[in-house]
Amino acid sequence: MALNLIVLGPPGAGKGTQAERFAEHHGLPKISTGDMLRDGIRQQLPLALLAKEKMDRGELADDETMIGIVRERLGRPDTTVGFVLDGFPRTVLQGRALDGLMCDRDTGPLIVVDIEVPEEELVVRLAARRICAACGTNADPTDASVTCRRCGGALVHRADDDEAVVRERLRVYAQESRPLVDYYRGRPTFRAVNGAQPPEWVARELEAGVAAATSASSGLPLGAQG
After folding, report:
1. The CATH number of the domain where 202 resides is what?
2. Which of 30, 42, 49, 155 has the fewest CB atoms within 10 Å, i.e. is most exposed?
């Protein structure tokens, strides 16, 4: 049975780092909205180009566009063994659309892990965060390197990571994405982990959470979402 995982969490929770680590360990494709958009733009895919036009105007890509991009990505052969999703879904509407895609795929339940971190800790983390200027990868905050371990690009501080902007982003997350966590919370395939720990500890707790959720889902039919 395929292992299908969503990693949720607010900005600065470390979900990208944990998603990538889990995907590598289990031999799964790690699928992020940023990667999908960059890949789609390189390939001149219509939906990705539409999303780019919106973002170039300072707008967010709408639900319909993002759902279409994810639908195309999950239709590729490498996802038959499962996947790790980072950055999608972000809204309840996107979550419901993903449920529909999972039923169509009929490859096993969807495991959902939410990485929880107190707001004050997130503010401190984001103020110190660096990203790769070339590929956009977030650097591990405990890593003192000046270049990206993924592509060798320069690591820089994001211009929008000052405290006022960070708190606004966290407010928007709470408003738009917290309902999504509540949407998943009652399912036997949902687990929350403590993200206010060293990355290695978070990784171990995430692995344990996925194992427990997978065990809880063993009686569910393929494609069921709990």
Report:
1. 3.40.50.300
2. 42
